[in-house]
Amino acid sequence: MERRTKRTLKEWQRFLARSLLPLVPNAAREAQLLLMHHLRCDELHLLTNQNAMVQEDAWLKAALLRRMENEPLEYITNKVDFYGEEFYIDQGALIPRPETELLVDAVLKEVTDDFSGTFCEVGVGSGIISIMLAKHLPKARFIAVDISKEALRVARKNLALHNLEDRIALRHSDMLENVSEKIDYLVSNPPYIQNGVVLESNLSYEPQNALFGGEVGDEMVRELINLTLSRGINFFSCEIGYDQKAIIQTYLKNKNYESLRFYKDYAGFDRGFTLKC
Ligand SMILES: C[S@@+](CC[C@H](N)C(=O)[O-])C[C@H]1O[C@@H](n2cnc3c(N)ncnc32)[C@H](O)[C@@H]1O
């Protein structure tokens, strides 16, 4: 029979933190998060039960090995925070990034609480953008599409978790191919990294079609601008790469629209825009 290691919570915390230290910037915190997830407890329980005995089990062992291989913690615990709420996540969808909260803010700057138009999100991924917008805009209607069935599976889980299945229609679609309805507001955090760029190893765990946007990188952004103009959509808010502002400005030079406003991320880089037509 396999011998299973028994340690106090405090000892586990130290052991996990020490094992992760060479690889993970915030090893002590990640050790706590792994234990909290493993024991299904909160931080208070962890801190007030430091001498409780905990037996190693298959999950904890596997979780530590996965993290030591640089798999993101969010995929191991199947949890991610976004805009102050908790979401389900797995390798089927991109891990939501903090800067994408600014895309939600950009949209909420353009419309008031009683906006009752139709949103369409292209590239819904885990569902975080449409879900947060639906929570802030109770009268709006949402159609959210993705080319990846795996991403739609993750989004479906989050819609159920947040009780929004009635308000957000998920659809399998390449861009707006399967969306014939009139759209008032288009929103997207499309893949915008240039094909072939070598990324950090932890990014290899994420769906590659959520990261790479094409030979140049901004192909999908430009296609979405074309769709906004050709389908008479009033607003388009979009996240972009830090170096894509000038290309987008040039692309829109001779096109007919009302205004184009860019926003920056927390590090001060250009990160997105809202196009009003
Ligand atoms: C950067 S991720 C964004 C996911 C999520 N909205 C977020 O912000 O975390 C881009 C998403 O676009 C989807 N996607 C890529 N190409 C697409 C296309 N042609 N049509 C629809 N969705 C696409 C990917 O599958 C991925 O889920």
Briefly, what is this?
With 277 residues, the chain is α/β, with parallel strands linked by helices. The chain has helices at residues 9-20, 27-39, 43-48, 58-68, 73-77, 101-110, 128-136, 149-161, 219-230, 245-251; strands spanning 6-8, 53-55, 79-82, 85-88, 118-122, 141-146, 168-172, 185-188, 193-194, 212-214, 235-239, 259-264, 270-276. It is elongated, with a radius of gyration of 21 Å.
Corresponding CATH superfamily of the largest domain: Vaccinia Virus protein VP39
Order of helices and strands: EHHHEHHEEHEHEHEEEEHEHEE
CATH class of the largest domain, anyone?
Alpha Beta
The dominant shape is: elongated
Largest sheet: 7 strands, mixed
* Class based on secondary structure composition and strand pairing: alpha/beta
CATH architecture of the largest domain: 3-Layer(aba) Sandwich
DSSP summary: helix tally: 10
In the CATH scheme, what's the topology name of the largest domain? Answer: Rossmann fold
N→C terminal distance: 69 Å
Question: What compounds sit in this structure?
Answer: S-adenosylmethionine
Proportion of beta-strand residues: 15-25%
Key features of this structure:
two-stranded antiparallel ribbon; 277 residues; 35% helix; 2 domains; 13 strands; seven-stranded mixed sheet; alpha/beta; binds S-adenosylmethionine; Rossmann fold; 21% strand
Would you give an account of this structure?
This protein has 277 residues and is α/β, with parallel strands linked by helices. The protein has two domains: 6-69; 79-276, Vaccinia Virus protein VP39 (Rossmann fold, 3-Layer(aba) Sandwich), CATH 3.40.50. Helix content is 35%, strand content 21%. The protein contains ten helices and 13 strands. The strands form four sheets. It has a seven-stranded mixed sheet, with helices on both faces. Helix 7 (128-136) links the parallel strand 5 and strand 6 (141-146). Helix 1 packs across helix 2 (27-39) and helix 6 packs parallel to helix 7. It is elongated. The termini are far apart. Bound molecules: S-adenosylmethionine. S-adenosylmethionine binds at residues 93-94, 96, 100, 122-126, 128-129, 145-148, 151, 174-175, 189-191, 209-210.
